[in-house]
Amino acid sequence: MSTVVLLGVTGLGLGALYFLMASGLSLTYGLLRVLNFAHGVFLTAGAYTAWLIVSRVGGNGPARFAAALLGALVVGAAIAAAVEVALIRPLYRRHIEQVLATVGVALALGALAQGIFGADPRPFPVPPWMQGVTPVLGAAVPNSRLVTIAAGAAVLGALGAFLRWTRWGLIVRAGVENREMVQALGIDVQRAFTLVFALGGVAAALGGVLSDGYFGTVDPARGTAMLIYAFVVVVIGGLGSIAGSAIAAVLVGLIQQFANYYGSVWWSFPSSGDLAVVLLLVAVLLVRPRGLAGGA
Amino acid sequence: MRRGAGLAGLLVALAAVPFVPARAPGILPAPLNAPGTLQLLALCLVFGGVALSYALLFGYTGLLSFGHALFFATGAYTVDIALSRWQWPLLPALAVTAVVSLILPLILGAVALRVSGIAFAMVTLAFAQAGSILAFSNPGRLTGGEEGLGLVVDRLPAQLVGVVNTRYLYWIALGYLVVACLVSWRAVTSRSGRIWPAIRENELRVEVLGVTPYGYKLLAFVIGCFLASLGGVVYVLLAGGASPGITTANLSLALLLMVVLGGTGSLWGAVLGGVLYEYLDFRLVALAGSPGIHALPRWLSVPLGEPLFILGMLFILLVLFFPGGIAGVPDRYRFARAPKRRLLQGEEGTS
Asked: pTM of the prediction?
């Protein structure tokens, strides 16, 4: 029983990390029709910014982690906004070229991170309160999992509130539905594009910091690895839908975690969860080609 | 006619390379017919062919696949497993590789083509990821996991083994490129081949004209992926084995870069792009390891020491400033005096 609870909570934590990436991907796709390959770089940037701050600032209190978190979010937003302004905007409406440009960013900055910090993962000094465990239904659950889940849920709530109750959220929602009409009404959609990119960058950088705590290491290859699963989540959930992404992220995280565990226990095949996720994607595409939220 | 004669002349010149002891200082580190140079040139030819196979999908039919490396790796691993793990002779190994290389893209393409555009790109990426996980996780000790699978050469013909025989491998690579070109040329001049660019430009209009694009897209997918698998087979002979690096998304992205470098939509451009990319990659890796780089200040030596950083930057600049790639250079020159017409062309191709 306690194994199942532990796997469930860990899977939910993984799902929360996927959601933090997928939400930004899904929004940028919905509004700009751009598949952003550079999104993994935002996560890597957040992860390494936090690591740099933590390893340079003394003490071990919550202030140090807060500073690292804040720095990571600012860097994530800045890089994301810079990518939008420098690469996406000049290639306005040329979607394939926009995708190609973000591929270039992903390759170049990924290689740069590897060049600066080395190809091997490095240990991340996880704060003590995050390393402890909390008993949940008889299972000793690491606090980092709970923090990740809480952050994912908070971002889901905040994004929902932003989209529902603010003026900018209204513009973004209207833009996802029909961008030309929003422009025709005299609203500057361009700024909404930058905003959505920056928000996606913040969410991904938050995911980066939390993944440092979740895995206990900081790794230059994690951005790309997480990005592929975030893509799967976005397609399963339905492109452009935040709620769909959230449901799909939970589904993918849980299936991956359980299948990885039982695959290695029963068939000594530890990658079975990763394959199960791809099979889930195929199954969803065969039944509902437009994703869970997209209608049949 | 003149064009045919020119191509035949080029082919003869390329085939004669192993007999020419010329040096090209600054461009090649060793004489033209040295084994090291021949291996580099052979790799360039192989990736010229693989880039061409990807151009059939992406440049020609508009299928943005991020999983092309999967099919290259399928050819490489299947022939390697048959030869080295099962100890089969060469011909049965090639036969089973051909069968696998036809069936796999048929099945995966049939599923992935249920969606189009960006969703198709992501699905192919996920398939390739699954393949990569399989190659890394070493199921049944078949793929050799992270170390890859070295080629056991006992059963191979003697001409394919040993450094002194690199010229035979070079000719095989050249032969592969010729086959890839002939198949692609035959394909794009066929009836289906004429529908592919129409699908790329406006799929809805193709449907309205009463043609169902699905089958044509699947055909392009299977042909392109099969040619990529064939390239994987030649690659295994050249590289002396398969390593899991060829299954990762980085190779798919590199193929994309090759096609864009050559000029999206142009087949001969893709061949040139593939050759040039492989050459650049080799030179940049050599540059990264050279002592001159380490003498530079750190802010210069770190980026210059990462070939992918330079290639990624090159890619961004290409997309921003040279969207036509190599194949677009003559057009740029021709349209330089009529900027308006060029502008219209640019709009047309990018919608």
From this structure: 0.85
Structure tokens at B271: 């061949």
Which residues in chain A are closer than 8 Å to B302, comparing Cβ atoms?
112, 115-116
The answer to whether the CB atoms of A289 and B249 lie below 8 A apart is no
Using an 8 Å CB-CB cutoff, list chain B residues near A290: 115
Task: Enumerate residues 6+ apart whose C-beta is below 8 A from B79.
Answer: B93, B94, B97, B232, B233, B236
ipTM over 0.90: no
Residues 227-256 of B with CB under 8 A from A: 249-250, 253, 256
Q: Each residue of B87-118: b (16+ CB within 10 Å) or e? A: ebeeeebbebbbebbeebbeebbebbbebbbb
Output b/e per residue, B195-213; b: 16+ Cβ within 10 A: bbebbbeebeebeeeeeeb
Q: What is the mean pLDDT of each run of 10 residues along chain A (296 residues)?
A: 85 93 89 86 93 81 84 94 90 82 90 87 81 80 87 92 89 82 85 89 93 87 88 87 91 91 79 85 81 65
- How far, in Å, CA of A71 to CA of A90, rounded? 28
How many CB atoms are located within 10 Å of the residue B296 CB?
12
| Interchain CB distance below 8 Å, A108 and B130 | no
Q: Say if strands B149-150 and A217-218 run parallel, antiparallel, or are unpaired.
A: unpaired
> What is the number of residues in chain B?
351
